[in-house]
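Lab manual, section 2.4: Encoding a predicted structure.

Procedure: take the sequence of the chain (190 residues), apply the prediction step described in section 2.3, and record the output as structure tokens. A sample record is shown.
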Amino acid sequence: MSLPLQLFALVIALFLSLPAVGAQDGSVRLEPAADGRAWVLSADLEPPRTSRLEDAVMKGVPLHFVLEIELLRPRWYWWDQRVAQASGRARLTYHALAREFRVTRDDGLSTPHESFEAALAGVAQVRSWRIDPGEALAPGDYVVQARIRLDATQLPRALQVDALTNRDWNPQVEWTRANFTLPQTPINAR
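Recorded output:
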């Protein structure tokens, strides 16, 4: 077996043997994918909450949320290097006849919820999102960060004007961050 093939096999074995990586508060979890080329993220994020959002949904206005995920490599001498990023969308609606809230994701998966709070928690729950950096990650420290925010551009036009100046329509949502370390490859592993 040639040296490049041995190194590739070693990198794959390393990715498959890594333990799950979690955040300080346990809300973000990053694991290597089964193929060893990407990462799989699961997270419980804090969604934006205001009384105006619930009123709008109850009156038939669908709310569109954007989920943003970034994989960063910290650098002491400059801004952090963005290694990979991903984004997705979720739509929250209320169906008055069925008396249920429904969360619909990009992939078409739609889940019913009995309350607005449960539906918001469903929007902010991320499971098995694939993050592909495009190339093998070098050993070292990394940060994964994720957040969910309301996409005010998807609101009806009359509400978009109000959303420009009113914080109830555009609440600030902080990034949820988790640190993890990719270990060095052992020198004598062949």
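Check your result against the sample. The chain has one domain: 3-182.
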